[in-house]
């Protein structure tokens, strides 16, 4: 049964955020809100968490997982970025974008695309997510909470708790979330390739 965390959207309660972070460190898989839509999240090195996300979403091994980072300094530990790409990403963060980039050795092999050796990274513009990342002290391994055969993610914490109570360990609710996933930009080839048009404005990458 998933634990329900009711978090204030503008002033997240430190005690509650600390409890969520501790559960993640202990191996929990949670649903949490972002600046685009709800996401599934677990600790970076959690193979069990990855397997559970794949099962919930029916994903194959070519799916790009995302490392949700607190800031640019943290993001830079996990991906390789040249100067031109650095400027483009810096100008777009924090925000509703996921960037696909070559992974560094800090990224567990099981998270990398099996052929490209890439990983998704992003810095969300969301008060609750940022508070959780600050408390956790490391990126949150994430994937959009979009269920198989459904076109839009769920937007309400209570709805997620009701439907996924048996497969999640926790649900963070800070009010209604958006329905549009992040815009995904692939920089792994050096040039910006728009993989998915979503919540982030794509005009700067066209």
UniProtKB/TrEMBL annotation:
SUPFAM superfamilies: YrdC/RibB (SSF55821). InterPro entries: DHBP_synth_RibB-like_a/b_dom (IPR017945), Sua5-like_dom (IPR006070), SUA5_domain (IPR052532). One of its GO terms (molecular function) is L-threonylcarbamoyladenylate synthase. It comes from the Bacteria. Residues 14-200 form the YrdC-like domain. PROSITE patterns: YRDC. Keywords: Nucleotidyltransferase, Transferase. It is an enzyme of class 2 (transferase). Its EC number is 2.7.7.87. NCBIfam families: L-threonylcarbamoyladenylate synthase. This is L-threonylcarbamoyladenylate synthase.
